[in-house]
Amino acid sequence: MSRERRILFIQYANPAAYPPLLHGTRILAREGWQVRVLGVETPGTLPLEWPRTEGVDCRVMRGTPVGLLLKLQYLIYTVVLHRYLRWRLPGYTPAEHLGGVVYLYVRGMCGPETPVVDGHPAGVFSWALPPELVVALSDLLDRNPLEVSV
To answer: pTM of this prediction?
Structure first.
């Protein structure tokens, strides 16, 4: 039994503004891949339309706060880690083996004088993801991308 070939691209801007992405998705679609592209509307730019291509589905989220995009990125990376651990670590359970996400923005860190806001040093972001959320998103991404509504 062969698995469907699917791929998801996440673009932190309007994907139609990136011709190489459009070109790459068309190549993948011609090769039989089901392609989904998720992007965001960039404030202050003209709206661009993604041309219709068979096998390629593009969705653009409108009015998305920047912080939400970073959390989406953390969530996707954690799902990838979950899938890797599930494959490679015998006895893996998300509740036991997944920790939170910590991002260090080096440009925002100033050494010992780094300001602390609400108990967190500037340039440090952490988020404890519920394991159930990671598993649910992983399961969602296993579905046919043309059947999943965003």
So the answer is: 0.56
